[in-house]
Amino acid sequence: MIEKNYQPADIETRMSVVWEDSLAFKAGRPDRRDAVPFTIVIPPPNVTGSLHMGHALNNTLQDILCRFERMRGRDVLWQPGTDHAGIATQMVVERQLMERQQPGRREMGREKFLERVWQWKAESGDTIINQLKRLGASCDWSRERFTMDEGLSKAVVKVFVELHREGLIYKDKRLVNWDTKLLTAISDLEVQQTEVKGQLWYLRYPIEGKTFNPEDPSSFIVVATTRPETMLGDTGVAVHPEDDRYQKLIGKNVVLPLVGRKIKIVADEYSDPEKGSGAVKVTPAHDFNDFEVGNRHGLRRISVLDREGCLDLLDNEDYLRDLPEGAAQFAEEFHKVDRFAARKRIVERLESFGFVERIEPHTHTVPHGDRSNSVIEPYLTDQWYVDAKTLARPAIAAVRSGETTFVPKNWEKTYYEWMENIQPWCISRQLWWGHQIPAWYGPDGKVFVAETEEEAISHALGYYVEQEVITPEQGREMALDRNKREGFITRDEDVLDTWFSSALWPFSTLGWPDETPEVQRYYPTNALVTGFDIIFFWVARMMMMGLHFMKEVPFSTIYIHALVRDEKGAKMSKSKGNVIDPLHLIDEYGADALRFTLAAMAAQGRDIKLATSRVEGYRNFATKLWNACRFAEMNHCAVPDGFEPAKAKETLNRWIAHETAHTTREVTEAIEAYRFNDAAGSIYRFVWNVYCDWYVELAKPVLLGPDGPAKDETRAMVAWARDEILKLLHPFMPFITEELWEVTAKRDGLLALAPWPLKPVEPTPEQLAMLAATTGPTDALVSPAWVLPIFDHADFTDPAAEAEIGWVIDLITQIRSVRAEMNIAPATLTALVLAGASAETKERAPRWADVIKRLARLSDISFADRAPDGAVQLLVRGEVAALPLKGVIDVAAERTRLDKEIGKAEADIKRAESKLANEKFVANAAEEVVEEEREKREAALARKAKLLEAMERLKQAS
């Protein structure tokens, strides 16, 4: 029996246990052995993480797809797992050590520190997994993976070694984003560009051969810079080749102030004549753009900063080379001075010699580490790189050919732009937590890449014997005796970028590089659901690695969802204090309400403006469903064996069968097309408006009337439609629907495994062959081209039933609307005249007269050839229905009220349009503020239109 009150917390706890105990979500169930697979890999959340709203949206949409396909009979694998999140996890543990005043990482040593991290992972690493379960995620939790599991580590090592063997992984000295606090290279994804108010220094660089005189512009060239401290590493000055001011200086040298090094003036289009002085200093070792300019002109790279962001000048051979006598003293004075302190002291020194022309306030963006909040330094260092350009070519071709498609399709442009301009991928990180790079160095620095240390030793001994560094006898002894080779080779201390292991996720989680049955069955996957912010860093890399190692795309569809913002459209952030915690919403309103809210608002390409009131509204929707099911139960509604809805005799019941079939098709097609909001909107309208508000209401006289065939059929149809609702709603609101299914449907088996109302037809061999010729055999059974509807009821249509019940509903709805517009009190009954009614209407009206009068608050229904004078006329399905309101309402007072309301609407429109016409407002106001004004204008325009319509109706009543 259904409890009186809907309590989400009780239901969610109970249903979670039921699903887990029954292994409902396990892939490869015996009953699905011959079913077509459907695979999704979860974007692995960081092991340090907790559920945020982006996770809630992402996993809700994935779960809708998985539950939908599971009900359609597919063998669903939703592969779960977590990412080791190198930097984030290492920071968490280091912070714990510091807070507990325990020895730090360096004091502990690598081995002990890693033991500590694994201990922390065991204690706290399951937090987000448990939170995903609270959300209702139907993953195969028995297959949970971690990016540093033994099997996944094996895959990472194999990929690294093979790519190195093919020349696609190599070591190089290049600029990287360097975090001076974490002391590691970081990816572009981990860099945040922050706008800061700084200064622009205009510095005079003396021209070689001329006596420097601050009063003589011909004796120097002025460069503008935001970073005077890096000038010590300048190796050139760039001017635009078409800048007339500097044509005679191109090719000449300037003397670097304070340092005395001679550097060349080069012509390069990177210099913008419209910015600053039109001349820029070139510091190839400390700026990414300068690095490229330096490469084009063969300029030296002189690094003047160390790992901590301090000046590194003493014993710096690159810096000291070619310095004039006396410059070394300057190097000693500034050695190991922090970059920002050095900036101040260098500017003071430049000013004292007259090298500063002027200083201007300057607002610009400065890169910061997203975790350390430290200013990121472009740093010249040896790192490991992947030749991403080579790997990107097949990945670009796969999207162009349609093997993989983006939804929405406009994201393909973003993908192409980045992939076609892709840079070498820096994959090494100066951390301890992560996959240690499988590379060892010999005594002379020679690199040996291998899957194991034993293999590396073998390669090294063979190489050094061949080079006659050691004798063959020494080589044999070292091969046999570990003690004799101790320290002969040393392993690279760096670990791999977290994204490297994540790039293998679609196949490493299935057991690759071993040829497991899971790899054969579940790769390639069907769909990837992810955010746009990691198209470059994860999606593109999975495409590259999947195609290179598996020779197939990792997924056929990439669905990109938008951001979840606050109700005003602002991006959520802790600093703004507008972060909405999904776990709080689940506690308050239930997981089903949150899930439905996110799905209902997930329009393709549009950010979600999340208001708590929306979640509360969908909690009310769940309550509405709950109460409707209780009503059915209390009226003894049940589906008898052998019941066939298509054979119903009562018009009302045939109508609900018709509407159910229509909704089933709408929901199915919308989910297939990743239009989650349309699917949710369709089922919401059907449940609330069609089933609860109309069908149950119109069925009440029958259910409360005398026993008989009509009552029996209606009871059966109420229960049947309820069960169809539970099926259609299950992917969106799994907890409440599973509970109600268990209590009311009285069927064997879980709703999660019940058949979806609309079943796909399996293609014929001829269709399969045709499809395989164009898209490949693995896509044959998942292509929408072959998902054809066959149904016990989805093909059912009854235009006659729809016409009759639709007319009743439209008539009542329009009368209610007029009563609301005209401020007619509920207690006031009005007459209805059906003017020039057709034979069908004359037949229907008496049959539904009692219902129409009760629901539309009518005193009488009559027929006439034409509408009486002073009646408000309604057009209902092509026929006139008239409400004689003369004497019922005060027309003059009502006109005054409507005029006043129209005036208010017009004032609101004018106010919003005035703001939107202000270019400064649109340019400077926050995006969400501008959007709010647009919404205000649209709402006021819609309100005015309805008021004008009401005014026109009022004229009829005059």
TrEMBL record:
Domain of life according to the entry: Bacteria
GO MF term set: valine-tRNA ligase activity
UniProt-listed Pfam families: Anticodon_1 (PF08264), tRNA-synt_1 (PF00133), Val_tRNA-synt_C (PF10458)
UniProt keyword annotations, A-Z: Aminoacyl-tRNA synthetase, ATP-binding, Coiled coil, Cytoplasm, Ligase, Nucleotide-binding, Protein biosynthesis
'HIGH' region, short sequence motif: residues: 45-55
Valyl-tRNA synthetase tRNA-binding arm domain residues: 890-955
Residue span, Aminoacyl-tRNA synthetase class Ia domain: 18-610
Compartments where found: Cytoplasm
Keyword Signal: no
NCBIfam families noted in UniProt: PRK05729.1 (NF004349), valS (TIGR00422)
Primary role: Catalyzes the attachment of valine to tRNA(Val). As ValRS can inadvertently accommodate and process structurally similar amino acids such as threonine, to avoid such errors, it has a 'posttransfer' editing activity that hydrolyzes mischarged Thr-tRNA(Val) in a tRNA-dependent manner.
UniProt comment concerning the protein's domains: ValRS has two distinct active sites: one for aminoacylation and one for editing. The misactivated threonine is translocated from the active site to the editing site.
Family indicated by similarity: Belongs to the class-I aminoacyl-tRNA synthetase family. ValS type 1 subfamily.
Subunit structure comment from the entry: Monomer.
The protein's name in its UniProt record: Valine--tRNA ligase
Source organism of the structure: Bradyrhizobium yuanmingense
Gene: valS
